[in-house]
Specification:
The chain is an alpha/beta fold. Helix content is 39%, strand content 20%. The protein binds adenosine-5'-diphosphate. Adenosine-5'-diphosphate binds next to α1.
């Protein structure tokens, strides 16, 4: 499912983000940038040790912020590592931090002159964020950013499995984006 926003495209699809050919893929990292399970583990496995080496040099990234490294052996040239919030009910600034994780990743892509970017569904795995609410934040934040920043030509949400894809599709319809 795809929508046109000015000159830019926003797309949702089901897939494996490590196979993306966009300029950068976004990793749902932890603050220590130490790798782990889920999409983080998959990206490090597919991209090889150069990514971890770069992460070690950076050392730390707080929730809601983003850093960039090489893409190593990935098809994508860069990995943007952002840290989403751990969801503990919604009373600990989770929505602001999730919005910030998307926004800081987009800003970093612009700053680097990147044209295309792929996101996973940040915080919706081990970090427990309810998928529909996370999808709404992901989509509205990206939509608003693309309206103001046509330098980014394409943003893809690469969703792991049909259930997550279906929730994103539903939220996209609710936002009248489709
Ligand atoms: P977090 O700790 O931010 O919750 P997870 O990696 O546990 O991060 O989960 C975030 C999302 O990434 C989940 O929807 C999970 O299903 C998804 N995911 C896991 N592996 C991949 C992959 N290879 N490509 C895209 N998404 C993935």
């Amino acid at each position: 499912m795809e929508v046109q926003i000015g000159e830019s495209k926003l797309m949702i699809l089901e897939g494996d983000i490590t196979q993306e050919t966009t300029d950068a893929i976004v990793n749902a990292a932890n603050s220590g940038l130490k790798g782990g399970g889920g999409v983080d583990g998959a990206i490090h496995r597919a991209g090889g040790p150069a990514i971890m080496e770069a992460c070690r040099k950076i050392g730390y990234c707080p929730a809601g912020q983003a850093v960039i490294t090489t893409g190593g052996n990935l098809k994508a040239k860069y990995v943007i590592h952002t840290v989403g919030p751990v969801y503990t009910g919604g009373g600990r600034n989770e929505s602001k931090l999730l919005k910030s994780a998307y926004l800081e990743s987009l800003k970093l892509a612009s700053k680097k002159g990147l044209k295309s970017l792929s996101f996973p569904a940040i915080s919706t795995g081990a970090y427990g964020y309810p998928v529909s609410e996370a999808a709404r934040i992901a989509l509205t934040t990206t939509l608003d950013y693309l309206k103001a920043h046509p330098d980014i030509e394409s943003v893809r949400f690469v969703l792991f499995g049909k259930p997550t894809y279906d929730v994103f599709a539903e939220e996209m319809k609710k936002l009248n984006m489709q």
